Amino acid sequence: MIERIFLVSIFLLQLQGLTVHPQVVAARQTENRKTSTPYTGDLSIFDSPGRDERLQINRVMDILAITPGKKVADIGAGSGWFSVRAAMRVGDAGTVYAVDINPDAVRYIESRIRKENLHNIKPILGKPDDPLLPAKVDAVLLLKTYHEVAQPITLLRNLRSSLTPGAKVGVIDRNGNGENHGVAREVVIREANEAGYHLLEKYDFIKDGMDYFLVFGAK
Q: b/e for 67-90, b at 16 or more Cβ within 10 A?
């Protein structure tokens, strides 16, 4: 009798369109994976000597096609380390949106802009699930940030409307379990795919062998 009632209940749910699709379940599980606590310490540590060479940042910008006149988003900008380098690449005709969810980071970047006289960097206080970009961009980089994103699929979906045709989205991170300041590259690829992106390129040349660089495009 109980089994019959259970089967009838399932049938009624299907008729009412209340059955949860397996992809929705998977997405919810992914959104709830472990993440690292966003960094709120001394931002100056990101400007350590030799970081350009360790991260091969010029090669990264070449791959993302960051050239004069382009618009770039630095999501999880922190101290603005990458924003400054991208700003030099795009020149006065280009724009770099330095996005962070930490108000202290945004203020730090604002101060840096004044000190270094950088007029083509626009600081943005974003939301954990939305970078709130004010214009379309040609390239995006999440540099050692993805493992801190609690709702990666939502963030990437919200980002899509701000991408120009052919825009590239780069993720540099290190292999880990999500809460140890790293996340497995397979997880990033799966989540990006669920958010409507396909993998264009992948590299292992970054830093110490534990880091990786993934490049995505919107489907």
A: eeebbbbbbbbbbbbbbbbbbebb
